[in-house]
Amino acid sequence: MKTCSILLFILCVGFSNLFSQPAGGKNVAGFYVLQDYDYFKTMLADIRRPAFHMRFYYDDAVRFSSLAVTGKHKFWDVSFGGFFPMLGYNFKVAPQPFGVAFFIEASAHMLLDFDTPSSDVINTDFRIGGGLAGRPLSQLKQLSLRYKFFHESTHIGDEYTLTAVADSAFRRYNVSYEAHELFVAFDHRARRPESLLDFVYLRLYAGGRRLNTGAFEDFKDKSALRSLKIKNKNESQLGGEFFLRGWLQPELEPDKINELVKRIIRPQYFMAAAEFYRRDQYAVAAPAKKWSYNVAAGLVYGNYFESKRTTKLLLNYYRGVNPHGQLRMYQISYLGVDFSVDF
What we know:
The protein has 343 residues and is mainly β. The strands form two sheets. A twelve-stranded antiparallel β-barrel has the order 2-3-4-5-6-7-8-11-12-13-14-15. It has a two-stranded antiparallel sheet with strand order 9-10. Helix content is 10%, strand content 50%. The relative contact order is 0.16. The longest helix has 18 residues, at 2-19. The two termini are 27 Å apart. Strand 4 (98-113) and strand 5 (121-135) form a beta hairpin.
């Protein structure tokens, strides 16, 4: 399953640009392939959003890692991935598309500590899944839904492990599971935002997931007593997004430096997003449900609402359970800078 997940991830990422088609072209009623009609856009404050992004932040060193540098460490949290609609059906295309689509979603999420001797890879999580996304009712155009089944496999980094095993208290756990999740969203988009800082878009959503396991084995001692446990198999998540208009994207002409400067300093949107998670803090003896939250705000370059390439420069504040693999035994808190590219 792990090998299959990695191969599918590489395949999806490698061919995403070749097959992608913007929804800004002709809307098609009936069946279609390899088009994205944005029934349910990826959630921007989701700490596990499948996208090409990097996040820099300072925080306390991960337990068992090298303490060659005292105080706060510099972390690089980087992800690679995407959302790939494969086959869909539009019931209606005016005034906007209403339909349902089958999709594949794949991503890898890696955490590195730059204040260790070799900038250790601490952990990498791989996700692969698929499901259905839809905006089913023209009578209730604000409603969208998404169901997904996915596999997650997590891997502690070799460099981190070489340091950690020197401490007899260190354990490696096989944090691998499948999950079903379902989200519902309500959104509203302004018809013709014309001026700077006009309202553009608002979305509120909520959902949950059900894991297929409640414990993860210790690689050395596979007894239930030593396994890493979760409180229960259910997790919940809710959040929202808010967009204001920036500047229209200027045409880029090679001989006009001022147009290039405008592209850099004039974003097309200002956005803010927040998510609240009710998730497990793993433990061997007493796992617990904890609230975690993630808040992001900043600038969006490009036409985000036409399924075209966009870049985002955001400030990101996270507080709660560490989202990486077996590090979900610990809590973290940081203010970071996030740069992402969406295709």
